[in-house]
């Protein structure tokens, strides 16, 4: 029999309702898996074994009593450690929040609780979600399960790695410039960024407020849809949350792509893209064409400026969002003779170099005399990119591109070169700027045996069409993480 | 051309205490990053409005209803230093 | 002094009395134990997000439209970035280039001269927490440490900025008083200066009379009464003139008003200008006010103080009296009620602004706490109208009523102030006086009318002031010239 930790959410749910599996057994299996893999991966910052077992027992009791909370009932999931969990340490991988226990839950956490999900732990990330490799964590690097010498991507590298190896059946991350999709691609799992405003950000420790969005990691497109459905929808605690009905997410999942028009974004698919990645993307596009989609090339010239605009907008917002970490009310406090000195010392000691770099960058971009040339101009470029995408969607149903220009890169390779690291997000950043949804689906392994992700993008609130195409991609590629990873050293006890 | 910036002033605005060596290093790195970011200036944007929020919305308000506060123990649980229900900090220099 | 002209602009912060705070569901309350009305949002905890209170937006629209402002179709929240321990997020959510209300005005009346004070902008923001500086006599610079209370953090705050249209300390005080009256009339704030729910900062400069160039200005903070506002502005004007006359120059700085010493002292210079790095608040979306919304706010505005004063004056009440009635809630309420019951506006207005206020000051008791009612006032006015009481007797009766001696009829009776209505008694008193002063009578008969006043006085004295003086005068004329 399959180890329960290797089941999809859908299969595990069916087994539980058939009386073949309990949430306690499933959770034990997942925790066992974490015990085996964590020494190699360091995907988790906190494993809440007692809490998870208690929640699993409660889920079993509820189900026995006829109270079925839905498809996530009793399913063990993991949360990126930048989502506030009441009573469970939440650090955003920063020294400045070491030991901080939030007095409240993020809306997403409450919704998952209501959906019956079992939280197994909090996963590692680049400090405050700033990075593309999870190397910027103050608590150590997470490793890629496909090759522990390589990075899992980032910033949600812990969530991606945990789902890939079965330390959780699903997980949640946050995506500001690709922080869900890029690690999903590098770890061979499905990762999805919803339309901005579809999922509440309340309780997500903010990096860049106009770009951040919480989304799921899963081992299948359908599981990702189930995870998204549990957390989507208006929240009174988030003023940017979209009012109105949640789009139908799974409605057309298996309707195929016949008659749909798919645009390949030229600017994101050629220059600077690894040849093996390009080949895998081309092959997938051919598959979509064979499945009945009309495929066209689409040029979005402003996309080339997306990375530059992003590295002004995100730091500017983060410079304000991270101002509250000052040693006064919570978290780390360094010595200082005056409050002013204490604050400056606390921030110097508590923030890692990448965070300091971005705060300084954003402070500069907003400061008197530079605002218009940097921040203001970046926001106008953002408008141009939005307009180009909107115009493209007049003609095509979805856009596609690689998720990441390369597969997983060696630990340390880009750590010393911020700009090289920033290029990791070149394909994922545009939809953060536009607010549109996008998903990464694993489609192949490269010659080193590392996964390649295929990105599908859709217009705002176009989740139904997005998942429909993604499901077809998954069907065409026939990629399953479990098969590829089965022999990985990290899974050996 | 790397962008020249007054990194000490920026660090002071950001309230981060950095050594001269750190200032120099961050100054160099920021200069290089800004050289790349400056590319946004190549695009003509006359008459283009800025985007602050990707999904256009207006008037997201809440009703004027009291929904409660945290227990004081929770408020002060994470405080580096507290006294008599207050957060305690070293003396404050400036005035605002 | 007349060689110089003062140029003054005032920034006023008004805390709105909504039930909950600006961006969270904590109560707006005063006097609670420290940090007990706080939550993740107003403590600026990681992950917390602001959601604007609709009632606060309604409140600022009331203030803005009452100040005759334009309401922006679309306005925005911005982050104002600066580090200060009582500002939990180390940025304040405020408004910047597009405030919700702008370009209004307010008309003030000083010594009968009406002056228009332009209102530059009215914008929405959030209040900060409070710092207590411990040790060193509570002075910030000598303190050993500070304590922080965030109960006030996030209370809705409206900032009202005038054009530099104010020219004197007296105008500054009258502007402050009028603004206070307006926000209280609107019911959006209790506007208590001593409790800090209304706070003034004054920007003051001086220049040679006739000059069009603005002088360097100083900003005065810590003004917590209307009287202090006037004193602080007067002091600062004099300080600047003296400084210039003695060859010095005014520096741009923030100065602190010391109530005890009656002086301003320098807090910090602004040579290094603040860089607040304003940018649009990405956690909030724009505020859009439709014409319908604005019109509904305007239609629901209560009668404002200026309109109320005009209405009283139209009833025949003096401008000064109308000002007093409108400035004091309890007097205005008594007056309104007395008018509704058909009382004489002029008499009752004068009594309330004169005798009632004087009694209140002398006794240290609010008029509203006295037993006087509107129907007492109406009854008293009727007693003057039907000559039961003389005007002066009526004032004595009112003082008795205020003092709890009973109804006007009871007081008049008890104090023996009712005018003599028996014509025979008065005629007899007149005859007695005429008989006692034959020279005066002869004078009148000879065409010298001056002694009439003297004779009236004698009759009044003889009747203990209870005769109607007009009637007495007529009788004297009849008896001496008839």
Report a brief summary of the structure.
The complex is a heterotrimer of chains A (493), B (96) and C (482). Chain B is mainly alpha-helical. Chain B is built from three helices and two strands, in the order αααββ.
Q: Which range does the strand content of chain B fall in?
A: 5-15%
Helix fraction bin of chain B: 25-40%
Radius of gyration of chain C: 30 Å
- Most extensive interface: pair and counts? A-B, 73 and 52 residues
Q: Determine the N-to-C terminus distance of chain C.
A: 63 Å
Percent of residues in beta strands of chain C? 15-25%
Low-confidence stretches of chain C: none
Total strand count of chain B, please?
A: 2
Note the overall shape of chain B. Answer: flat
Please give the order of strands in the largest beta sheet of chain C: 2-6-7-10-1-11-12-13-14
Kindly describe this structure.
The complex is a heterotrimer of chains A (493), B (96) and C (482). Chain A has 493 residues and is α/β, with parallel strands linked by helices. Chain A is built from 17 helices and eleven strands. In chain A, α2 runs antiparallel to α3. Chain A starts with 8 loop residues before the first helix and ends in an 8-residue tail after the last helix. Helices cover 32% and strands 6% of the residues of chain B. Chain B has 96 residues and is mostly helical. Chain B has a two-stranded antiparallel sheet with strand order 1-2. Chain C has three domains: 4-296, no CATH class; 303-371 and 394-406, no CATH class; 423-481, Arc Repressor Mutant, subunit A. Chain C has helices at residues 54-66, 169-186, 226-245, 291-299, 305-314, 319-327, 329-340, 345-363, 374-385, 391-402, 408-414, 423-436, 438-445, 451-462, 469-481; strands at residues 4-15, 70-71, 74-75, 78-81, 91-94, 101-110, 113-126, 130-134, 145-149, 156-162, 198-208, 218-223, 253-258, 263-269, 279-280, 287-288. Chain C is elongated. At the A-B interface, α10, α11, α12, α13 and α14 of A face α1, α2 and α3 of B.
Based on the model shown, name its key terms.
heterotrimer, A: 493 residues, alpha/beta, Amidase signature (AS) enzymes, C: 482 residues, Arc Repressor Mutant, subunit A, three-stranded antiparallel sheet, 15 helices, elongated
Topology (SSEs and partners):
The complex is a heterotrimer of chains A (493), B (96) and C (482).
Chain A: H1 9-17, H2 23-41, E1 44-47, H3 49-64, E2 76-80, H4 107-114, E3 118-123, H5 157-165, E4 170-174, H6 181-187, E5 190-193, E6 214-218, H7 221-231, E7 261-265, H8 266-269, H9 275-290, E8 294-298, H10 306-321, H11 339-350, H12 353-366, H13 372-395, E9 398-402, H14 418-422, H15 429-434, E10 438-445, E11 451-457, H16 463-477, H17 481-485
Parallel strand pairs in A: 2-3, 2-4, 7-8, 7-9
Antiparallel strand pairs in A: 1-3, 4-6, 5-6, 5-10, 9-11, 10-11
Helix pairs in contact in A: 2-3, 2-5, 5-6, 10-12, 10-13
Chain B: H1 7-13, H2 20-37, H3 72-77, E1 82-83, E2 86-89
Chain C: E1 4-15, H1 54-66, E2 70-71, E3 74-75, E4 78-81, E5 91-94, E6 101-110, E7 113-126, E8 130-134, E9 145-149, E10 156-162, H2 169-186, E11 198-208, E12 218-223, H3 226-245, E13 253-258, E14 263-269, E15 279-280, E16 287-288, H4 291-299, H5 305-314, H6 319-327, H7 329-340, H8 345-363, H9 374-385, H10 391-402, H11 408-414, H12 423-436, H13 438-445, H14 451-462, H15 469-481
Parallel strand pairs in C: 12-13
Antiparallel strand pairs in C: 1-10, 1-11, 2-6, 3-16, 4-5, 4-15, 6-7, 7-10, 8-9, 11-12, 13-14
Helix pairs in contact in C: 2-3, 5-6, 6-7, 6-8, 7-8, 7-9, 8-10, 9-10, 10-11, 12-14, 12-15, 14-15
């Amino acid at each position: 029999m399959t180890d329960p930790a290797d089941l999809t959410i859908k299969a595990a749910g069916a087994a539980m309702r058939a009386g073949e599996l309990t949430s306690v057994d499933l959770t034990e299996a997942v925790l066992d898996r974490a015990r085996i893999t964590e020494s190699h991966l360091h995907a988790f910052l906190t494993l809440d074994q007692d809490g998870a077992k208690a929640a699993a027992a409660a889920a079993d009791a509820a189900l026995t009593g006829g109270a079925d909370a839905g498809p996530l009932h009793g399913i063990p999931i993991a949360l990126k450690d930048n989502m506030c969990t009441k009573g469970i340490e939440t650090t955003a991988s920063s020294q400045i929040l070491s030991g901080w226990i939030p007095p409240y839950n993020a809306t997403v956490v409450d919704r998952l609780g209501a959906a019956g999900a079992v939280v197994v732990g909090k996963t590692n990330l680049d400090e405050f979600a700033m990075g593309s490799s999870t190397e910027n964590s103050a608590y150590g690097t997470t490793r890629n399960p496909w090759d522990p010498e390589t990075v899992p991507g980032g910033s949600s590298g812990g969530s991606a790695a945990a789902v890939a190896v079965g330390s959780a059946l699903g997980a949640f991350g946050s995506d500001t410039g690709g922080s869900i999709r890029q690690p999903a691609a590098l770890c061979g799992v499905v990762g999805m960024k919803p339309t901005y405003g579809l999922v509440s950000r309340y309780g997500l420790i903010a990096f860049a407020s106009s770009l951040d969005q919480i989304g799921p990691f899963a081992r299948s497109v359908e599981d990702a849809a189930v995870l998204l459905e549990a957390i989507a929808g208006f929240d009174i605690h988030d003023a940017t949350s979209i009012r109105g009905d949640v789009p139908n997410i799974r409605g057309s999942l298996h309707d195929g792509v016949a008659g749909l028009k798919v645009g390949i974004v030229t600017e994101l698919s050629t220059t600077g893209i690894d040849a093996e990645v390009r080949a895998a993307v081309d092959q997938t596009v051919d598959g979509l064409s064979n499945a009945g989609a009309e495929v066209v090339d689409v040029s979005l010239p402003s996309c080339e400026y997306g990375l530059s605009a992003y590295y002004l907008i995100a730091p500017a917002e983060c410079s304000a969002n991270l101002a509250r970490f000052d040693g006064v009310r919570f978290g780390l406090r360094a010595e200082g003779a005056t409050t002013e000195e204490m604050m400056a010392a606390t921030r110097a000691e508590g923030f890692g170099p990448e965070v300091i770099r971005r705060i300084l960058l954003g402070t500069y971009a907003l400061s008197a005399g530079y605002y218009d040339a940097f921040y203001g101009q970046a926001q106008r470029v953002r408008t141009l990119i939005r307009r180009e995408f909107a115009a493209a969607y007049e003609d095509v149903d979805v856009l596609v591109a690689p998720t990441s220009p390369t597969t997983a890169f060696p630990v340390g390779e880009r750590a010393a070169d911020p700009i090289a690291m920033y290029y990791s997000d070149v394909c994922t950043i545009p939809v953060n700027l536009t607010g549109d949804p996008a998903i990464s689906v694993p489609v192949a392994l490269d010659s080193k045996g590392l996964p390649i992700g295929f990105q599908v993008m859709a217009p705002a609130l176009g989740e139904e069409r997005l998942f429909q195409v993604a499901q077809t991609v998954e069907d065409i590629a026939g990629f399953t993480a479990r098969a590829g990873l089965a022999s990985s050293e990290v899974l050996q006890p | 051309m790397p962008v020249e910036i007054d990194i000490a002033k920026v660090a002071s605005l950001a309230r981060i205490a950095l050594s001269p060596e750190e200032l120099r290093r961050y100054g160099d790195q920021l200069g290089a990053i800004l050289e790349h970011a400056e590319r946004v200036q190549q695009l003509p944007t006359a008459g283009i409005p800025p985007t602050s929020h990707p999904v256009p919305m207006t008037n997201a308000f809440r009703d004027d209803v009291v929904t409660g506060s945290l227990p004081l123990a929770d408020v002060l649980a994470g405080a580096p230093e507290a006294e008599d229900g207050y957060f305690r900090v070293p003396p404050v220099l400036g005035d605002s | 002094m007349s060689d110089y002209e003062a140029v003054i602009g005032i920034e006023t912060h008004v805390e709105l009395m909504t039930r909950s705070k600006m961006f969270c569901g904590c109560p707006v309350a005063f006097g609670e134990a420290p940090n007990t009305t706080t939550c993740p949002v107003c403590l600026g905890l990681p992950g917390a997000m602001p959601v604007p209170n609709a009632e606060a937006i309604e409140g600022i629209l009331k203030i803005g439209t009452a100040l005759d402002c334009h309401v922006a179709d679309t306005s925005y929240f911005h982050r104002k970035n600066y580090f200060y321990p009582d500002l939990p997020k180390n940025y304040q959510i405020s408004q910047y280039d597009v405030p919700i209300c702008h370009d209004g005005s307010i008309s003030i009346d000083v010594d009968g001269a009406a002056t228009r004070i332009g209102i530059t902008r009215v914008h929405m923001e959030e209040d900060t927490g409070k710092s207590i500086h411990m040790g060193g006599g509570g002075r910030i610079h000598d303190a050993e440490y500070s304590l922080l209370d965030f109960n006030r953090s996030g209370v809705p705050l409206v900032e009202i900025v005038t054009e530099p249209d104010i020219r004197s300390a007296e105008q500054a005080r009258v502007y402050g008083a009028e603004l206070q009256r307006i926000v209280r009339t609107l019911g959006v704030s209790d506007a208590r200066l001593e409790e800090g729910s209304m706070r003034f900062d004054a920007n003051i400069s001086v220049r040679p009379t006739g000059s069009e160039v603005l002088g360097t200005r100083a900003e005065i903070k810590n003004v917590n009464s209307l009287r202090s506002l006037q004193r602080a502005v007067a002091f600062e004007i004099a300080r600047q003139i003296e400084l210039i006359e003695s060859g010095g120059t005014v520096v741009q700085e923030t100065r602190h008003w010391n109530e005890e010493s009656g002086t301003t002292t320098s807090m910090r210079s602004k040579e290094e200008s603040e860089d607040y790095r304003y940018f649009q608040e990405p956690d909030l979306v724009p505020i859009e006010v439709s014409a319908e919304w604005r019109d509904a706010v305007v239609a629901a505005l209560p009668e404002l103080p200026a309109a109320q004063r005009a209405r009283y004056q139209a009833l025949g009440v003096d401008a000064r009296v109308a000002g007093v009635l409108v400035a004091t809630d309890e007097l205005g309420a008594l007056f309104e009620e007395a008018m509704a019951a058909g009382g004489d506006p002029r008499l009752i207005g004068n009594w309330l602004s004169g005798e009632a206020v004087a009694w209140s000051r002398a006794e240290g008791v609010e008029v509203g706490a006295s037993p006087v009612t509107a129907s007492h006032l109406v009854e008293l006015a009727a007693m003057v109208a039907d000559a039961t009481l003389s005007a002066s007797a009526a004032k004595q009766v009112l003082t008795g009523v205020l003092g709890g001696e009973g109804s006007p009829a009871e007081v008049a009776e008890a104090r023996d102030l009712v005018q003599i209505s028996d014509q025979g008694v008065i005629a007899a008193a007149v005859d007695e006086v005429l008989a006692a002063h034959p020279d005066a009578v002869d004078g009148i008969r000879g065409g010298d009318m001056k002694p009439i006043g003297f004779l009236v006085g004698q009759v009044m004295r003889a009747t203990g002031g209870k005769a109607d003086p007009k009637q007495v005068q007529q009788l004297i004329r009849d008896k001496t010239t008839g």
